[in-house]
Design a protein that fits this description.
Layout: H1 4-14, E1 20-23, H2 32-40, E2 45-47, E3 51-52, H3 53-58, H4 60-70, E4 78-83, H5 87-97, E5 103-108, H6 113-118, H7 128-141, E6 146-151, H8 156-169, E7 173-177, H9 193-202, E8 207-210, H10 216-226, E9 230-233, H11 235-239, H12 251-264, H13 269-279, H14 281-284, H15 289-296, H16 300-317, H17 342-355, H18 359-395, H19 411-426, E10 433-437, H20 446-465, E11 471-475, H21 482-490, E12 500-502, E13 515-518, E14 524-525, E15 534-538, H22 549-556, E16 560-563, H23 566-569, E17 570-572, H24 585-598, H25 601-608, E18 615-617
Parallel strand pairs: 1-2, 1-9, 2-4, 3-4, 4-5, 5-6, 6-7, 7-8, 8-9, 10-11, 10-15, 11-12, 13-15, 13-16, 14-16
Antiparallel strand pairs: 17-18
């Protein structure tokens, strides 16, 4: 059992300022890189994102992720927040992290639907006996303090009793978010500082205030009215990380600093994208085209280019554009004021009630509508892209030449495409030859068969679009097979594809010495793509990830196996948990076909290697 004075001394060392500035726990937003940025600009104490106490004790991968986020010695004082609903969960999680932090915090403030479903957060605030056991167990068994972040009750008396109960159970610090658990979404409203003041006056442990903070002046007002020991800031810190020092720097400069910290303290790229959406939120009102561009950014390089281009636009217009809400230029860090009025929110709520649908159904409907709009935008973007590409190709036509057909949807264009595909199958000597070994399908389940059919459709689509299509051979495929039926179901006209289909083994169509079997773990690296060889790809979707299957098959039949030059021509970005060189057959085909047409591995790997794999092309690759 850990002595109480020891835990009190730890907390006294943490709360060593007259007014402690505290970065709030924010899911996927208060990660290590952002915390280090916050500390540079005045944050005294930082909270981690909320972690799941049950998962960290059972899942090794999740535990490794959490420990990597909290193991920086410069990131102190640090409090790790957990959601939990049993004493054992919280104690065991605390024992895992207690060597890397100055305290653990029990989340009793999350009002979201996931907290209701998981029975944690604000939905534990009526379970006082359970909370007493959870807090007291941590007090007895951990070497660090246990704190809690709560929401208030509608009745101030009950809020005070709630705080006293937590104090009596062993809570060393209480953070009070001055809203009830019903105050969320359309009904967020203002936080009640008077309730926070009552809690402070009735408990002896340190009390932290949370809510209604947009500027440094708001922090001072809060301390003056409530006499709290510190102020916690969440959303306003995301739009202005310099709030604790009262500065409003250029967004561009702060983003540059943050991206440098991400390089030093890597995190998922989705976290970075979310931060840039928040901090550039005002600029999107003036330049909405950049919002969609940021949504498509998948690497740190993309983020840096976006930041540079956004800054260039701001430099050209910064003298004339201001925001009516804050009276500040949109290109500097500042609070975000929600433009929707309370009356508009209430009107929307009345419409929902009149329609007889639940809030959850309303959210799903709105999500579906946004999805439809995004699909329409993507289709329009694709049409515009094809139009621009046709125009660029037509501009290259020499004067006096017969006009070419470029990707038009007319019947004439379709006949030209079909003719090119037929010529590719006839003139094998001058065309790239690709063979799909589909003899693996007997080992695949229906889900894997469906995925493979989709990949085959995308592969054939790439071949149709190419001005130099490949000769395609599908071996080990019978018309009675599950794969053939699935392809016919998914792709209209599959029976008429310009391909060679046979039930026989691929060794029956060419000499053995012409084959190169492509495998992610092949014996040699593929250095070039020519028309003298036949490139075999194993049509295998293996969700169990059995290794060396295609390589061993090639070796067993005396065929050379090669791998794509990913390891020698690409490097890891440092921002992914899993770096995989296993590609779908259509992605491998895109790489082969692009190299065949351009003789450039840079173009080929850019075309077929998806960003989510976590690789970037080396600068020296041509």
């Amino acid at each position: 059992m850990v002595s109480k004075p020891s835990q009190q001394r730890i907390l006294q060392d943490v709360l060593n300022k007259d007014t402690n500035y505290i970065l709030a726990p924010m899911v996927d937003q208060s990660e290590l890189a952002w915390r280090m940025l916050a500390r540079k600009y005045g944050a005294h104490i930082c909270f981690t994102p909320m972690f799941n106490a049950n998962v960290i004790t059972k899942d090794g991968t999740y535990r490794k992720k959490v420990l990597s986020d909290i193991s920086c010695v410069e990131d102190r004082p640090l409090i790790v927040q957990f959601c939990a609903n049993t004493p054992d969960q919280l104690v065991n999680a605390g024992k895992i992290v207690q060597q890397h932090c100055d305290g653990i915090d029990l989340n009793l403030g999350c009002p979201q639907h996931i907290a209701r479903r998981g029975h944690f957060g604000a939905f534990l605030q009526d379970s006082w006996d359970l909370l007493t056991k959870m807090i007291s167990s941590c007090k007895e068994e951990l070497a660090i303090p246990i704190t809690a972040k709560i929401r208030v009750f509608p009745e101030v008396e009950k809020t005070v009793q709630y705080a006293k109960m937590l104090e009596a159970a062993g809570c060393s610090m209480i953070t009070v978010h001055g809203r009830t658990k019903e105050q969320k979404g359309l009904h967020t409203g203002l936080a009640n500082w008077s309730q926070i003041k009552e809690v402070k006056e009735n408990v002896s442990v340190p009390v932290i205030s949370n809510g209604n903070i947009q500027t440094l002046e708001d922090i001072h007002k809060c301390v003056e009215k409530t006499s709290v020991d510190g102020v916690m800031v969440a959303e306003s810190h995301l739009t202005n990380p310099c709030i604790f020092v009262g500065a409003n720097p250029r967004v561009y400069d702060v983003v540059c600093e943050y991206l440098e910290l991400v390089k030093k303290y890597p995190c998922p790229i989705s976290y970075v994208r979310a931060h840039l959406f928040k901090i550039w939120v005002h600029a999107f009102q003036f330049h909405p085209e950049f919002q969609e561009r940021l949504g498509r950014a998948n690497t740190l390089d993309d983020m840096e280019r976006f930041n540079e281009d956004m800054n260039a636009v701001c430099l050209n217009s910064e003298e004339n554009n201001t925001l009516s809400d804050n009276k500040l230029p949109y290109w500097i860090c500042q609070p975000y004021v929600r433009r929707k009025s309370v009356s508009a929110n209430l009107e929307k709520e009345k419409e929902r009630v009149a329609s007889g649908i639940s809030r959850n159904q309303q959210r799903k409907l709105e999500k579906y509508q946004r999805k439809v709009e995004n699909i329409k935008k993507k289709r329009q973007h694709e049409r515009d892209r094809r139009k621009e590409r046709r125009s660029a190709l037509k501009a290259q036509d020499a004067p006096g030449e017969e006009p070419k057909i470029y990707y038009s949807t007319s019947n004439l264009a379709k006949s030209h495409i079909k003719m090119r595909l037929a010529q590719a199958m006839q003139n094998q000597a001058s065309c790239l030859k690709v063979c799909l070994d589909l003899s693996w399908t007997s080992e695949m389940n229906d889900k894997e068969i469906s995925k493979l059919a989709g990949q085959i459709g995308r592969l054939y689509g790439s071949n149709r679009r190419s001005l130099q299509p490949a000769s395609l051979y599908f071996t080990g495929l019978s018309q009675e097979s599950r794969l053939y039926r699935e392809c016919s179901r998914k792709h209209n006209g599959f029976e008429n594809y310009e391909i060679s289909v046979t039930e026989d083994n691929f060794l029956s169509i060419f000499d053995k010495d012409k084959f190169i079997y492509l495998s992610p773990d092949g014996e040699e690296e593929l250095s070039t793509v020519d028309t003298n060889h036949v490139y075999v790809m194993g049509g295998l979707v293996d969700e169990t990830i059995k290794k060396h299957l295609s390589r061993d098959k090639a070796s067993g039949q005396g065929i050379v196996s090669k791998r794509l030059p990913i390891s020698s021509m690409m490097h890891r970005t440092g921002h992914h948990n899993n770096y995989s060189t296993v590609l779908a057959i259509n992605q491998v085909f895109d790489i082969l076909l692009t190299y065949h047409c351009t003789k450039s591995w840079r173009h080929a790997l850019s075309e077929g290697m998806p960003p989510r794999k976590g690789y970037l092309i080396n600068d020296e690759v041509t």
